[in-house]
Automatic annotation (TrEMBL):
Naturally occurring in which organism (per UniProt): Sporofaciens musculi
Name of the protein in its database record: Metalloregulator ArsR/SmtB family transcription factor
Keywords: DNA-binding, Transcription, Transcription regulation
UniProt-listed PROSITE patterns: HTH_ARSR_2
Start and end residues of each HTH arsR-type domain: 225-316
InterPro entries: ArsR-like_HTH (IPR011991), HTH_ArsR_DNA-bd_dom (IPR001845), Metal_resp_trans_reg (IPR051011), WH-like_DNA-bd_sf (IPR036388), WH_DNA-bd_sf (IPR036390)
Length: 316
């Protein structure tokens, strides 16, 4: 799903949400959850709910290049924009020669039974697990990328890329990816950059290079504490469970305001406003900053965007 497209420094920048990419990387996480510290709780929840399915994902890890065989392969550019159902349908239509041509770059070859087993696990995983996960993640990640798009337009594509990962460097006319070794790409050779966000990519620095194309994947950390009901979730719901605080939020969603401005608009004392703002700040729903002699407050909409996913994760 293309969210925006623009040109910067002779590069076509495409902000996207890619459900197929996110699904395969979630399978990559399940196949080696110990390596992905910020998704352990999620992986544990899925493993407890679907132990046989997760075992199948682990068993096929090597055969599928750690479940990256589609999104890291030369055919990916043809599949990048597909919805998951369309991708599964396309995989099912491939004969064994087309399938082995797709995975040739991994050094693997499969018999028909092996291919069918991989497709069956993908289909079962989507229908039993990821379809529901994706309904929650799609609006959240799309909202994140809308904000990142604004940052990118303001900073420029290369400065935005610098914030993707500590091991991605922009040095003069060159992009440097520090992975198992250094991969260097001249800016002049990059014609298009696909920019996206993922809740599963951490701790990896993703590198996919097509013909003049790069993918930049920004991590979005969603892991919660091990407590059954994380304390920060309690603070969020407590902050939202008050009529006056909801009215303050409604005002702040229209723009940044000071304590004094909120007090005048609502007709309550500054002390009363400050008390409510303190609770909202403790819950991480607002950010405060100094404006001259006054403190102004900005509402963090991304925390609200993430509530459905947090609630689902917490209660399941």
């Amino acid at each position: 799903m293309v969210l925006d497209k623009f040109e910067d420094d002779n590069v076509e920048v495409v902000f996207v949400y890619l459900p197929v990419w996110e699904m395969f990387f979630s399978m990559h996480v399940l196949a080696d959850s110990e390596h992905h510290l910020y998704q352990r709780r999620w992986a544990k929840r899925i493993s407890e709910k679907e132990p046989d399915l997760v075992k199948s994902i682990i068993d096929l890890n090597e055969a599928t290049a750690k479940w990256l065989f589609v999104i890291d392969g030369p055919k990916w550019s043809q599949m990048r924009q597909m919805e998951i159902e369309e991708l599964i349908s396309n995989l099912q239509k491939m004969n064994i020669y087309q399938w082995n041509d797709m995975i040739e770059y991994t050094g693997q070859r499969m018999e028909i039974d092996g291919r069918d087993a991989v497709i069956r696990v993908i289909k079962e995983y989507y229908e039993r697990v990821f379809m529901r996960e994706e309904r929650l993640l799609r609006p959240y990640l799309a909202r994140i990328m809308q904000k990142e798009r604004e940052v990118c337009r303001r900073l420029g594509i290369w400065r935005w890329c610098e914030g993707i990962h500590p091991r991605l460097l922009v040095e003069g006319d060159c992009l440097v990816f520090r992975k198992d070794r250094e991969y260097r790409y001249q800016k002049a050779h990059v014609r298009r950059i696909y920019a996206m966000a993922s809740t599963f990519v951490n701790p990896h620095l993703w590198l996919y290079k097509g013909d003049g194309e790069l993918e930049m994947v920004k991590e979005v950390l969603t892991e919660q504490a091990e407590d059954d009901i994380p304390n920060h979730c309690v603070l969020v719901f407590k902050a939202l469970g008050d009529h006056t605080r909801l009215k303050i939020i409604k005002l702040l969603m229209q723009g940044t305001l000071t304590t004094q401005e909120i007090s005048l608009k609502m007709g309550i004392s500054e002390a009363g406003v400050s008390k409510h703002l303190r609770i909202l700040n403790q819950a991480g729903l607002v950010r405060k900053s100094m404006k001259g002699h006054y403190v102004e407050y900005h509402f963090l909409t991304e925390r609200i965007d993430f509530i459905p996913y947090t609630f689902y994760e917490m209660m399941m």
